[in-house]
Protein backbone atom coordinates (compact mmCIF):
# COMPACT_ATOMS: atom_id res chain seq x y z
CA UNK A 1 0.00 0.00 0.00
CA UNK A 2 1.36 3.40 -1.03
CA UNK A 3 1.40 6.08 1.65
CA UNK A 4 0.13 9.45 0.39
CA UNK A 5 2.23 12.51 1.14
CA UNK A 6 1.31 16.17 0.79
CA UNK A 7 3.68 18.42 -1.19
CA UNK A 8 5.22 21.57 0.27
CA UNK A 9 7.15 24.33 -1.50
CA UNK A 10 10.49 25.39 -0.03
CA UNK A 11 12.07 28.82 -0.33
CA UNK A 12 15.54 29.98 0.66
CA UNK A 13 16.44 33.64 1.16
CA UNK A 14 20.25 33.92 1.07
CA UNK A 15 21.51 37.16 2.58
CA UNK A 16 24.89 38.39 3.65
CA UNK A 17 23.94 37.94 7.31
CA UNK A 18 21.39 35.14 7.42
CA UNK A 19 20.01 32.34 5.23
CA UNK A 20 16.30 31.82 5.85
CA UNK A 21 14.62 28.55 4.85
CA UNK A 22 10.81 28.36 4.69
CA UNK A 23 8.22 25.74 3.81
CA UNK A 24 4.84 26.79 2.39
CA UNK A 25 1.62 24.82 2.18
CA UNK A 26 -0.29 26.87 -0.38
CA UNK A 27 0.21 30.38 1.01
CA UNK A 28 0.57 29.25 4.61
CA UNK A 29 3.95 29.05 6.32
CA UNK A 30 4.50 25.61 7.78
CA UNK A 31 8.06 25.93 9.07
CA UNK A 32 10.91 28.42 9.01
CA UNK A 33 14.51 28.49 10.17
CA UNK A 34 17.28 31.06 9.82
CA UNK A 35 20.93 30.01 9.77
CA UNK A 36 23.86 32.47 9.88
CA UNK A 37 25.28 32.58 6.35
CA UNK A 38 28.77 32.54 7.84
CA UNK A 39 28.10 28.99 9.09
CA UNK A 40 28.04 27.66 5.53
CA UNK A 41 31.45 29.25 4.91
CA UNK A 42 32.90 26.96 7.60
CA UNK A 43 32.00 23.93 5.47
CA UNK A 44 33.94 22.73 2.43
CA UNK A 45 32.28 24.00 -0.75
CA UNK A 46 31.37 20.44 -1.77
CA UNK A 47 29.25 20.02 1.38
CA UNK A 48 27.24 23.26 1.33
CA UNK A 49 24.47 22.02 -0.98
CA UNK A 50 24.17 18.88 1.17
CA UNK A 51 23.89 21.07 4.28
CA UNK A 52 20.98 22.97 2.72
CA UNK A 53 19.30 19.71 1.71
CA UNK A 54 19.69 18.33 5.22
CA UNK A 55 18.13 21.48 6.71
CA UNK A 56 15.15 21.30 4.35
CA UNK A 57 14.56 17.58 4.92
CA UNK A 58 14.83 18.02 8.69
CA UNK A 59 12.13 20.74 8.54
CA UNK A 60 9.64 18.60 6.56
CA UNK A 61 6.81 17.50 8.88
CA UNK A 62 5.76 13.81 8.86
CA UNK A 63 3.42 13.05 5.99
CA UNK A 64 4.75 15.83 3.76
CA UNK A 65 7.09 15.78 0.78
CA UNK A 66 8.98 18.46 -1.14
CA UNK A 67 7.41 19.72 -4.37
CA UNK A 68 9.92 22.41 -5.39
CA UNK A 69 12.63 24.76 -4.18
CA UNK A 70 13.16 28.42 -4.98
CA UNK A 71 16.17 30.55 -4.03
CA UNK A 72 16.65 34.28 -3.70
CA UNK A 73 20.32 35.26 -3.46
CA UNK A 74 21.80 38.66 -2.69
CA UNK A 75 23.89 40.44 -5.28
CA UNK A 76 24.40 39.46 -8.92
CA UNK A 77 22.78 36.19 -10.00
CA UNK A 78 23.38 34.89 -13.52
CA UNK A 79 19.94 33.79 -14.70
CA UNK A 80 21.41 31.91 -17.66
CA UNK A 81 23.94 29.78 -15.75
CA UNK A 82 21.96 29.84 -12.46
CA UNK A 83 25.20 30.67 -10.66
CA UNK A 84 25.48 33.30 -7.92
CA UNK A 85 28.19 35.86 -8.71
CA UNK A 86 28.46 37.73 -5.42
CA UNK A 87 31.90 37.24 -3.91
CA UNK A 88 31.52 40.46 -1.92
CA UNK A 89 28.66 39.57 0.45
CA UNK A 90 27.72 35.95 -0.39
CA UNK A 91 31.01 34.28 -1.22
CA UNK A 92 30.06 30.96 0.40
CA UNK A 93 27.41 30.30 -2.27
CA UNK A 94 29.09 32.04 -5.24
CA UNK A 95 30.97 30.75 -8.24
CA UNK A 96 29.85 27.13 -8.34
CA UNK A 97 26.74 25.23 -9.61
CA UNK A 98 24.79 25.22 -6.34
CA UNK A 99 21.39 25.11 -8.09
CA UNK A 100 22.38 22.14 -10.26
CA UNK A 101 23.65 20.32 -7.18
CA UNK A 102 20.41 20.95 -5.27
CA UNK A 103 18.31 19.90 -8.26
CA UNK A 104 20.19 16.61 -8.46
CA UNK A 105 20.04 15.89 -4.74
CA UNK A 106 16.36 16.78 -4.25
CA UNK A 107 14.99 15.59 -7.62
CA UNK A 108 12.47 18.48 -7.70
CA UNK A 109 12.26 21.72 -9.74
CA UNK A 110 14.72 24.33 -8.43
CA UNK A 111 14.73 28.00 -9.51
CA UNK A 112 16.89 30.97 -8.51
CA UNK A 113 16.78 34.75 -8.86
CA UNK A 114 18.08 37.87 -7.18
CA UNK A 115 16.84 38.21 -3.60
CA UNK A 116 15.27 41.61 -4.28
CA UNK A 117 13.23 40.10 -7.12
CA UNK A 118 11.92 37.16 -5.10
CA UNK A 119 11.06 39.41 -2.13
CA UNK A 120 9.10 41.67 -4.47
CA UNK A 121 7.32 38.66 -5.99
CA UNK A 122 6.41 37.51 -2.48
CA UNK A 123 4.81 40.85 -1.64
CA UNK A 124 3.13 41.13 -5.05
CA UNK A 125 1.46 37.72 -4.88
CA UNK A 126 1.10 37.18 -1.13
CA UNK A 127 1.40 40.57 0.59
CA UNK A 128 1.03 44.34 0.35
CA UNK A 129 1.68 44.53 -3.40
CA UNK A 130 -1.46 42.65 -4.46
CA UNK A 131 -3.24 44.56 -7.23
CA UNK A 132 -0.31 46.86 -8.01
CA UNK A 133 0.35 47.78 -11.63
CA UNK A 134 3.93 48.90 -11.06
CA UNK A 135 5.43 48.02 -7.70
CA UNK A 136 8.88 48.93 -6.45
CA UNK A 137 10.39 47.21 -3.44
CA UNK A 138 13.49 48.38 -1.59
CA UNK A 139 15.11 46.10 0.96
CA UNK A 140 17.21 47.87 3.59
CA UNK A 141 19.31 45.10 5.10
CA UNK A 142 22.98 44.15 5.09
CA UNK A 143 22.95 45.88 1.69
CA UNK A 144 20.21 47.47 -0.39
CA UNK A 145 18.13 45.44 -2.81
CA UNK A 146 15.79 47.04 -5.34
CA UNK A 147 13.25 45.37 -7.61
CA UNK A 148 10.59 46.80 -9.91
CA UNK A 149 7.63 44.69 -11.00
CA UNK A 150 5.60 45.93 -13.97
CA UNK A 151 2.31 44.00 -13.82
CA UNK A 152 4.14 41.33 -11.90
CA UNK A 153 7.10 41.01 -14.29
CA UNK A 154 10.57 42.01 -13.02
CA UNK A 155 12.44 44.76 -14.84
CA UNK A 156 15.59 43.31 -16.40
CA UNK A 157 18.67 44.70 -18.10
CA UNK A 158 19.10 44.11 -21.84
CA UNK A 159 21.16 40.99 -21.09
CA UNK A 160 18.56 39.53 -18.75
CA UNK A 161 20.37 40.43 -15.52
CA UNK A 162 18.80 42.17 -12.56
CA UNK A 163 19.76 45.87 -12.33
CA UNK A 164 21.70 46.50 -9.12
CA UNK A 165 19.83 49.72 -8.32
CA UNK A 166 21.06 49.73 -4.74
CA UNK A 167 24.39 50.85 -6.15
CA UNK A 168 23.76 54.41 -7.31
CA UNK A 169 25.78 57.50 -6.32
CA UNK A 170 23.92 59.83 -3.97
CA UNK A 171 26.64 61.96 -2.36
CA UNK A 172 30.27 63.08 -2.47
CA UNK A 173 31.16 60.82 0.47
CA UNK A 174 34.77 59.68 -0.14
CA UNK A 175 34.23 56.09 1.02
CA UNK A 176 34.40 53.65 -1.89
CA UNK A 177 31.84 50.84 -1.96
CA UNK A 178 32.86 47.34 -3.05
CA UNK A 179 30.94 48.11 -6.28
CA UNK A 180 33.56 50.77 -7.06
CA UNK A 181 31.40 53.86 -6.46
CA UNK A 182 32.12 56.64 -4.02
CA UNK A 183 29.07 57.95 -2.18
CA UNK A 184 27.17 54.74 -2.98
CA UNK A 185 23.59 54.49 -1.71
CA UNK A 186 24.13 50.98 -0.32
CA UNK A 187 27.15 52.01 1.74
CA UNK A 188 25.29 54.95 3.28
CA UNK A 189 21.65 53.82 3.50
CA UNK A 190 21.72 50.09 4.21
CA UNK A 191 20.81 48.89 7.68
CA UNK A 192 24.51 48.15 8.09
CA UNK A 193 25.27 51.84 7.51
CA UNK A 194 22.68 52.91 10.08
CA UNK A 195 23.94 50.34 12.55
CA UNK A 196 27.51 51.62 12.28
CA UNK A 197 26.38 55.21 12.84
CA UNK A 198 24.23 54.33 15.86
CA UNK A 199 26.82 52.10 17.51
CA UNK A 200 29.04 55.13 18.05
CA UNK A 201 26.33 56.46 20.39
CA UNK A 202 24.73 53.16 21.49
CA UNK A 203 27.52 50.52 21.58
CA UNK A 204 25.38 47.57 22.70
CA UNK A 205 22.24 48.19 20.65
CA UNK A 206 20.53 44.89 19.84
CA UNK A 207 18.89 44.41 16.44
CA UNK A 208 15.75 42.40 17.15
CA UNK A 209 12.01 42.87 17.68
CA UNK A 210 12.69 45.32 20.53
CA UNK A 211 14.87 47.73 18.51
CA UNK A 212 12.03 50.05 17.48
CA UNK A 213 10.81 50.55 21.05
CA UNK A 214 14.33 50.93 22.47
CA UNK A 215 15.39 53.45 19.82
CA UNK A 216 12.16 55.41 20.24
CA UNK A 217 13.00 56.04 23.89
CA UNK A 218 16.63 56.87 23.18
CA UNK A 219 15.69 59.20 20.32
CA UNK A 220 13.39 61.18 22.61
CA UNK A 221 16.22 61.70 25.11
CA UNK A 222 19.18 62.10 22.74
CA UNK A 223 19.30 64.87 20.11
CA UNK A 224 22.37 63.22 18.58
CA UNK A 225 20.57 59.92 18.03
CA UNK A 226 17.56 61.83 16.70
CA UNK A 227 19.85 63.55 14.19
CA UNK A 228 21.43 60.24 13.11
CA UNK A 229 17.96 58.83 12.41
CA UNK A 230 16.88 61.96 10.55
CA UNK A 231 20.02 61.91 8.41
CA UNK A 232 19.52 58.22 7.72
CA UNK A 233 15.98 58.88 6.52
CA UNK A 234 17.26 61.70 4.34
CA UNK A 235 19.91 59.40 2.86
CA UNK A 236 17.33 56.69 2.13
CA UNK A 237 15.20 59.39 0.50
CA UNK A 238 18.05 60.60 -1.71
CA UNK A 239 18.23 57.25 -3.44
CA UNK A 240 14.47 56.79 -3.51
CA UNK A 241 14.03 60.19 -5.13
CA UNK A 242 16.07 59.07 -8.14
CA UNK A 243 14.35 55.69 -8.47
CA UNK A 244 10.84 57.11 -8.03
CA UNK A 245 11.48 59.72 -10.72
CA UNK A 246 12.85 57.10 -13.15
CA UNK A 247 10.48 54.18 -12.50
CA UNK A 248 7.21 55.89 -11.51
CA UNK A 249 5.74 53.09 -9.36
CA UNK A 250 2.19 53.23 -8.00
CA UNK A 251 3.44 51.85 -4.67
CA UNK A 252 6.84 51.47 -3.02
CA UNK A 253 7.41 48.89 -0.30
CA UNK A 254 10.24 49.07 2.20
CA UNK A 255 11.46 45.79 3.66
CA UNK A 256 14.47 44.53 5.55
CA UNK A 257 15.50 45.09 9.15
CA UNK A 258 15.71 48.88 8.80
CA UNK A 259 12.21 49.15 7.33
CA UNK A 260 10.68 48.40 10.73
CA UNK A 261 12.28 51.63 12.00
CA UNK A 262 10.53 53.80 9.39
CA UNK A 263 8.53 55.83 11.97
CA UNK A 264 11.84 56.95 13.49
CA UNK A 265 13.29 58.37 10.26
CA UNK A 266 10.10 59.25 8.34
CA UNK A 267 10.70 63.01 8.70
CA UNK A 268 14.13 62.78 7.06
CA UNK A 269 12.72 60.63 4.27
CA UNK A 270 9.90 63.10 3.60
CA UNK A 271 12.35 66.00 3.51
CA UNK A 272 14.49 64.28 0.88
CA UNK A 273 11.46 63.58 -1.30
CA UNK A 274 10.25 67.20 -1.37
CA UNK A 275 10.30 68.61 -4.91
CA UNK A 276 8.89 71.60 -6.77
CA UNK A 277 5.37 71.55 -8.16
CA UNK A 278 5.19 69.56 -11.37
CA UNK A 279 8.14 67.36 -10.39
CA UNK A 280 6.63 65.55 -7.43
CA UNK A 281 7.23 61.82 -7.04
CA UNK A 282 4.71 59.30 -5.74
CA UNK A 283 4.95 59.28 -1.93
CA UNK A 284 2.93 56.08 -1.55
CA UNK A 285 5.67 54.37 0.47
CA UNK A 286 4.76 51.76 3.07
CA UNK A 287 6.38 48.91 4.96
CA UNK A 288 6.10 45.46 3.44
CA UNK A 289 3.42 43.30 5.06
CA UNK A 290 5.45 40.07 4.97
CA UNK A 291 8.47 41.65 6.64
CA UNK A 292 11.56 39.45 6.80
CA UNK A 293 9.52 36.55 5.38
CA UNK A 294 9.04 38.22 1.98
CA UNK A 295 12.25 36.83 0.47
CA UNK A 296 11.74 33.21 1.49
CA UNK A 297 8.02 33.36 0.63
CA UNK A 298 8.74 34.75 -2.82
CA UNK A 299 11.46 32.19 -3.36
CA UNK A 300 9.05 29.39 -2.45
CA UNK A 301 6.58 30.39 -5.19
CA UNK A 302 9.29 31.14 -7.78
CA UNK A 303 9.30 27.69 -9.48
CA UNK A 304 5.49 27.79 -9.80
CA UNK A 305 5.60 31.27 -11.34
CA UNK A 306 8.30 30.17 -13.79
CA UNK A 307 6.27 27.10 -14.80
CA UNK A 308 3.10 29.18 -15.28
CA UNK A 309 4.97 31.70 -17.43
CA UNK A 310 6.44 28.89 -19.52
CA UNK A 311 3.00 27.42 -20.19
CA UNK A 312 1.61 30.83 -21.15
CA UNK A 313 4.38 31.58 -23.66
TrEMBL record:
Instruction: For this UniProt record, give its keywords in alphabetical order, as a comma-separated list.
Output: Kinase, Transferase
**MF terms (GO), sorted A to Z:** kinase activity
The answer on whether this UniProt entry bears the keyword Magnesium reads: no
Q: Which residues form a coiled coil?
A: none
Q: Which domain of life is it from?
A: Bacteria
- Pfam families to which the protein is assigned, alphabetical: ROK
Family to which this protein belongs? Belongs to the ROK (NagC/XylR) family.
Its protein name is Glucokinase
